[in-house]
């Protein structure tokens, strides 16, 4: 190949129901404008969204899966952060 | 977030593999956990999946050719719009799959080059010609029907990016099968000539479609480890039987005859097909099918003729980046 590999972009789409932009996949494009056009063609052929973000894949910093124990364990032991940890008598009703 | 940069830095599985890591990996698979791009995986798992997903992607792209052949000759505007949308979908499916394959650390450019050089394969079915409009109906009904049968279990494949790509593909694919069956139904309710055209297409496609599921279980090379790794959930013969059982009643409804005089229904209701001619399958895989050379020539021509577009887009992006750097320096 004489031309260098085309950069990779991650695509995020906000669906009609007003939720946050969600990662839907990736694609190759030489620049941001072409990435947006390609994202429309590849990921919204059936009206999947009202807004698209494209982000260069190299701009994403990811956590290391090998360290996921250390990273997420502190949250797992803190069950008192969930509402079900607390007892409320049934007579009180829904709370 | 499956960047190539992250994956190429991964040198874990070059050289001797850690037996403890391999056991841990298998335990995750057995627990139905999904494997993600940057997780540790055996080199053979990576290699098997890269081959399988990229072949799947090549098949979607080459699969556009036999159908694209009929876009300009579709009988009505409604049929033309539907066929155009279907071929566009196949292109989209190819791209989802290339993206999934790339997360394993091989670039799309390398994957495409492997196909264009003939090193990587694509599905044998796309080496058959589309001779009449009824072939377009048959492809939607049977070829896409067989693909769905194969792809639904892949939605639960152990490799996360492949499973997610398959979920999108399956959602879109059911329109393909229904539009094909509708074409067949219209032909079968039409004139005698139209019905004969539908029967002729079924006669030519039936056996090649059964071959799509791959060699019989007794001779398949990759099945054992793929099953252990939960890439594969059903064997080739199991899927083939499911497909046969689903398809025979659909053919009966159309009033068409499956071109297999030896086919019988057993006591459990399964439709048992006759012996498949595996020499034909091997010939087509070896490059000697009716359209192998045409398909490869068409792909190479399209790739070569698109080179200036890729180069121009890259040059424009480089120029803009340079201008931005210059402006920032002012």
TrEMBL record, chain A:
| Class of this enzyme | oxidoreductase
Cross-referenced Gene3D superfamilies, in alphabetical order? Answer: Phenylacetic acid degradation B (3.10.20.520)
Q: Any idea which GO molecular function terms this record carries? A: phenylacetyl-CoA 1,2-epoxidase activity
Q: Name one Pfam family in it.
A: PaaB
Q: Which InterPro entries does the entry link to?
A: PaaB (IPR009359), PaaB_sf (IPR038693)
Which keywords does this Swiss-Prot/TrEMBL entry list? Oxidoreductase
Q: Keyword DNA damage, does the record have it?
A: no
TM region positions? none
Q: Does the keyword DNA-binding apply?
A: no
Cite the EC number. 1.14.13.149
Q: What is the designated name of this protein?
A: 1,2-phenylacetyl-CoA epoxidase subunit B
């Amino acid at each position: 190949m004489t031309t260098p590999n085309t950069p990779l972009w991650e695509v995020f789409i906000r669906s009609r129901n007003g939720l946050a932009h969600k990662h839907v996949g990736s694609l190759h494009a030489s620049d941001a404008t072409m990435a947006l056009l390609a994202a429309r063609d590849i990921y919204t052929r059936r009206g999947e969204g009202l807004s698209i973000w494209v982000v260069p894949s190299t701009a994403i910093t990811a956590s290391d899966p090998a360290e996921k124990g250390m990273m997420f364990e502190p949250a797992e032991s803190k069950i008192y952060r969930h509402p079900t940890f607390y007892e409320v008598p049934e007579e009180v009703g829904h709370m | 977030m499956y960047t190539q940069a992250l994956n190429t830095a991964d040198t874990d599985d070059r050289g001797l593999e850690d037996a403890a890591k391999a056991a841990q990996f298998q335990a995750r698979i057995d627990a139905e956990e999904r494997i993600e791009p940057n997780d540790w995986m055996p080199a053979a798992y990576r290699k098997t999946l890269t081959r399988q997903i990229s072949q799947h992607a090549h098949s979607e792209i080459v699969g556009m050719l036999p159908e694209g052949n009929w876009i300009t000759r579709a009988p009505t505007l409604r049929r033309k719009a539907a066929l155009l949308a279907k071929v566009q979908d196949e292109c989209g499916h190819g791209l989802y799959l290339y993206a999934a394959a790339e997360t394993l650390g091989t670039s799309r450019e390398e994957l495409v080059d492997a196909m264009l050089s003939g090193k990587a394969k694509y599905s044998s079915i796309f080496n058959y010609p589309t001779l009449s409009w009824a072939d377009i109906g048959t492809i939607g009904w049977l070829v896409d029907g067989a693909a769905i049968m194969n792809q639904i279990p892949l939605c639960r494949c152990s490799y996360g990016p492949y499973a997610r790509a398959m979920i999108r593909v399956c959602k879109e694919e059911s329109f393909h099968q229904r539009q094909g069956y509708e074409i067949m139904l219209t032909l079968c309710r039409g004139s005698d000539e139209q019905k004969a055209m539908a029967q002729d297409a079924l006669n030519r496609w039936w056996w090649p479609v059964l071959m799509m599921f791959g060699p019989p279980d007794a001779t398949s090379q990759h099945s054992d480890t793929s099953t252990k790794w939960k890439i594969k959930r059903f064997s080739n013969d199991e899927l083939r039987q499911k497909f046969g059982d689903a398809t025979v009643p659909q053919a009966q409804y159309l009033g068409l005859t499956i071109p297999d005089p030896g086919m019988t229904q057993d006591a459990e209701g399964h439709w048992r097909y006759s012996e498949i001619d595996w020499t034909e399958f091997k010939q087509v895989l070896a490059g000697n099918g009716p359209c192998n050379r045409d398909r490869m020539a068409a792909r190479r021509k399209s790739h070569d003729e698109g080179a200036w577009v890729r180069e121009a887009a890259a040059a424009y992006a480089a120029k803009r980046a340079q201008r931005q750097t210059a402006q920032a320096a002012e």
